[in-house]
Structures are given as structure tokens and as C-alpha cells.
Design brief:
By secondary structure, this protein is mainly alpha-helical. 80% of the residues lie in helices and 0% in strands. The longest helix is centred in the middle third of the chain and has 83 residues.
Length: 111
């Protein structure tokens, strides 16, 4: 047996070398082979599409969970920043009160 496959010989309307037929086979056989190849390829394409969409779904769900984790972490950081700001505001108010008291004491001592 030398080179090619059965489909190649049939699509060219030639007799395959291993069959040793006398002449060219009719156009019905290549058409049948072509129809079979289309049916096989459509099944293969369906499986490939399923695998592709399954992989895309897996990647998007992984990306979604990663983004959700990042969002949760950002929320925690924002709440920590708000708490720190509240503490700073309280300290600032306390310092403003101390400054006001010191200025009042300076005025009283200057009299």
C-alpha cells in the first residue's frame, strides 16, 4: 500500500491501489465518502465546540472568583481606612480642644 488514504482516492474518483479495481469508480462513491466525512467532522466540531465552551466557562468562573476575592479584599481595606479616618478625626478634635484650652490659658495668664 502506498501513500494517501481511502478518502483521497475516492474523492479523486480513482480506484484505491489495494483493491486493484479495473477502472474509475462512479461518482456516487466519492459523494458518499464526502457525506460521511461531513457527518464525522460535524460530530468532531461539536465535541471541539463543547470543549472550547467548557474551557471558557471554567476560565470565566475562575476569573469571576478571583475578581470577587479582590472586591472583598478592597472592601476590607476601605473599612480599615474608614476606621483609621474616624480615629484621626477624634484625635484631631481632641487636639483642637487642647489648643483652644491652651490659648485660653495664655490669655488668662497674660492678664
Amino acid at each position: 500500500m502506498w501513500g494517501g488514504n481511502l478518502g483521497c482516492w475516492l474523492l479523486r474518483n480513482l480506484a484505491p491501489p489495494m483493491d486493484k479495481l479495473a477502472g474509475a469508480i462512479g461518482p456516487l462513491a466519492p459523494q458518499h465518502m464526502h457525506d460521511l466525512m461531513k457527518a464525522i467532522m460535524s460530530g468532531t466540531e461539536l465535541v471541539e465546540m463543547y470543549r472550547y465552551y467548557h474551557e471558557q466557562h471554567h476560565q470565566s468562573s475562575t476569573a469571576w472568583s478571583t475578581l470577587q476575592t479582590a472586591l472583598d479584599n478592597a472592601g476590607k481595606v476601605i473599612s480599615q481606612i474608614r476606621e483609621a479616618k474616624q480615629k484621626d478625626d477624634l484625635e484631631m478634635e481632641a487636639l483642637i480642644d487642647k489648643v483652644a484650652k491652651l490659648e485660653g490659658l495664655k490669655r488668662m495668664s497674660s492678664f
